[in-house]
Amino acid sequence: MTAPSNPRRGCVAAGHPVTAEAAATVLRAGGNAFDAALAALYAACVAEPVLSSLGGGGFLLARPQGGPARMFDFFVHTPRRRRPPTEAHAYPIVTDWGTAQQEFQIGIGTAAVPGVVRGIFAVHRALGRLPMADIVAPAAAAARDGVVLTPFQSYLMTLVAPIYLGTDATRALFGVTEGQPQHNPDLAALLEALARDGDRLFYEGDVAAAIVDHCQHGGGHLTRGDLHRYTVAVREPLTVRYRDASVTTNPPPSAGGTLIAFGLALLNKFSLKDLSFGTPEHATLLARVMASTVDARTAHGSGVHLLEDATLTRYAAELTAARAAYRGTTHISVIDAAGNAAAVTVSNGEGCGAIVPGTGTMLNNMLGEDDVNPAGVHAWPEDQRLSSMMAPTALVRDDGWFAVTGSGGSKRIRTAILQVVSNLIDFGMSPEAAVAAPRLHVEPGHLSLETGLGPATEAALAGLLPGHTLWNARNMFFGGVHTVARTPSGDLHGVGDPRRGGVCLVV
Fold first, then answer.
1. How many domains does the chain have?
2. Contact, 61 vs 235, CB < 8 A?
3. Which domain holds residue 310?
4. Of 41, 189, 255, 301, which one has the fewest beta carbons inside 10 Å?
5. pTM (2 d.p.)
6. pLDDT tens digits, residue range 58-78?
7. Distance of alpha carbon 416 from alpha carbon 434, whole angstroms
8. What CATH number is given to the structural domain containing 469?
């Protein structure tokens, strides 16, 4: 869904009407882009419970008008001590996407230290304008009054039914049918309490006590010390040049931004001026760049050394010689009329299946995510900030046009953002066209692609990677790249990715 230009106060793109409207309400009240992004994040925890939770973690890229960009890292942190496997409650489930299946570990023994609440307050203290009570109000009202279950959210519930409908506590919150309202009065009360008492309530007060008690008696790892010690890291973003633009994204220790930058740096070594979008030449180059990114991560990790000239030259040479033949995540993009911009990506994994009593909040299952914690559910490193594919991103062209974007989608985040950035810059697409264009994704030995590229291109890709899956429609598997852009004259426009129920509002 797209929105027209010429706004008065700002523009927001997000994954649900209630999420977007919370940001719009705050913009109308005089809030800036950061206030609006936080209001949308609170609302996403109400309206998009499979994708967002106060019990999860994420990142916010802040681009203040006239100031340096900052990345607020409030992703999850591993506990300081592991309980023995015999005491930790974790078990596998499988989600069925129709053309693909994925196994996850859930149970309260998969919950890492959540960072969302502390991240919200850190951003608000640094950049917010309105009182926290005003920012939290739309989400609290939605939780109390109820949010109608949309077709997309109903589809998500079907995918993860063992998590959200597997116990009496989860069924009481989420066991409604499409078109019916979901009410969460406990979450409404918690949101209002946070506005009143601050983040200490969650990390040191009554909520912290409830989390720890639930973990200690239910087979979780979290302790009072784990919650009390949690801190938000404010980092200098990773910035790279791509064609006539600067692209700013998530730096290490997270992997997603570096891998996007590596893919863009490889594409930068090839001219796309004479190629049309979706041709066999374009699509096979894109697929080979994705495959090289996977190979480079396997061989070298995902640190900034991936961007060294020697590494890039080696992989570019291999591409030239070759012949063509993260999960429950949501994203919010906001730009206000003054030019402040915020891009925030958050995740609860799939959720661990455990509701913290009295809070209406499900903790994350990040210790059971193989792409976040490849060592396994009982072998994670102690007391460490986990890496992530999440990569809220800004791109600024030399003519002054800029955009903020990002995506959910687990391992597909990096490829979804890479393709949208390339569509915007290489092919001059509008945000709507760049997001709507069919996508592909490469994993070791396997290619997934959306229909719409045409028989010749599909045949060329099949020849490049015989192990492939053709999806017959747009699907959330390929991410949800919610994007807002600002023209040099100040007009704002954007698009919410329809793959994930996207909405864009101009205020």
1. 1
2. no
3. 238-328+391-506
4. 301
5. 0.93
6. 999 999 998 999 999 999 999
7. 10
8. 3.60.20.40
